[in-house]
Design brief:
- By secondary structure, the chain is mainly α.
- Strands 1-2 form a two-stranded antiparallel sheet.
- Helix 4 runs antiparallel to helix 5, helix 4 runs parallel beside helix 6 and helix 7 packs antiparallel against helix 8.
- The protein starts with 6 loop residues before the first helix and ends in a 20-residue tail after the last strand.
- The relative contact order is 0.11.
């Protein structure tokens, strides 16, 4: 059996850790670049920015900054402020983990149609989660023998953070799965979308934190105890961002309503009962004044034979499914 605490083993694990971090940085940069078109649609104003996307952008860019900081720490050859660099990495890395859980929680709130008890419970869980993450920032690092080395960290707090993150993600997974498996108003296409591949994202986030927790609790050596921390943060951030992108794109291109209340998609689109663009007003007197705003059809908007929107960026409340009885002529 290997002696995990031997200097030779620790040195070999450190070399593997170095290569692994560079591979993970390349993986995340690939994921980041391939999805930049989504970011640009909001940054350029082509799509309207909604408040839930604040957590999406914050988590996405926090993790990128943390990975760049880790790459600098692993490759620097001249003496730098190691304490400041590792504090920077820890702040943005922990923030990425917390924001990923927030993004998944927002999806769960949407699925539960903003149920006040679910929202209050998840907000409380998020606040406790962030309290642990902020405590995990406390560490010490120094320049030793030509490299930045962490000289002190509270492994107990780190272990609690990942155990809590694992339980948090499992709770969100169960809440989402339960609501999707037993919807109150039947299953829509959006429910099928989340149920078919959205739950996989929740499951991946849970398993990533589970793996990090196992390595942390095994405590084989200083390197292997933290080797799964960065993969867990990357996996959670990637799947959370993909959930946001898929559901945002769905509500932008589909006319189907998934809701038991008007705000079930957390302000990612206009509610289906929004005011019609036609306005009729009557003035008291001899004449009747009718005012109607013009309706412009976008060139990239297409409808099928039943009048349902099949392509376009805006939700059209009048493009809902038409009941068959209204299609038949009266004669």
């Amino acid at each position: 059996m290997a002696d995990w605490q031997s200097p030779a083993e620790i040195q070999a694990d450190a070399a593997a850790f170095n290569n692994f971090m560079h591979a993970l940085l390349g993986l995340y940069i690939w994921e980041f670049v391939t999805s930049l078109d989504f970011d640009w649609q909001f940054l350029s104003g082509k799509k309207k920015f909604r408040w839930p996307l604040t957590f999406y952008f914050a988590g996405r860019y926090c993790l990128l900054l943390a990975l760049i900081g880790i790459a600098v720490a692993l490759n620097v050859r001249t003496e730098i402020d190691c304490q400041g660099l590792y504090t920077f990495n820890q702040v943005f890395g922990n923030a990425a983990v917390g924001l990923a859980s927030i993004n998944l929680s927002i999806r769960t709130m949407a699925v539960w149609s903003q149920n006040k008890y679910i929202v209050a419970f998840l907000i409380l869980v998020i606040l406790v989660h962030w309290s642990f993450l902020l405590h995990g920032i406390l560490l010490k690092a120094a320049w030793i023998q030509g490299a930045c080395v962490i000289t002190y960290t509270d492994n107990q707090i780190l272990a609690i953070c990942f155990i809590y993150s694992m339980i948090f993600d499992f709770t969100v997974l169960c809440l989402t799965g339960w609501k999707l498996a037993f919807p109150a108003n039947g299953r829509s296409k959006l429910i099928d979308l989340i149920f078919s591949d959205g739950l996989i994202y929740f499951l991946i986030a849970f398993l990533a934190n589970l793996l990090a927790t196992i390595f942390m609790l095994l405590n084989l050596n200083a390197v292997l105890s933290i080797i799964a921390n960065v993969p867990a943060a990357i996996a959670s951030t990637i799947v959370a961002c993909r959930v946001v992108r898929r559901l945002t794109n769905f509500t932008s291109h589909s006319a189907e309503v998934f809701t038991s209340t008007a705000q079930s998609t957390v302000a990612f689109r206009a509610p289906p009962n929004a005011t019609s663009p036609h306005h009729i007003s009557m003035k008291k007197g001899d004449s009747v004044h009718i005012q109607m705003s013009s309706l412009v059809t976008r060139p990239d908007t297409e409808y099928d034979s039943a009048g349902r929107l099949i392509q376009g960026d805006e939700f059209d409340a009048e493009a809902q499914a038409i009941n068959d009885e209204f299609k038949k002529p009266p004669y």
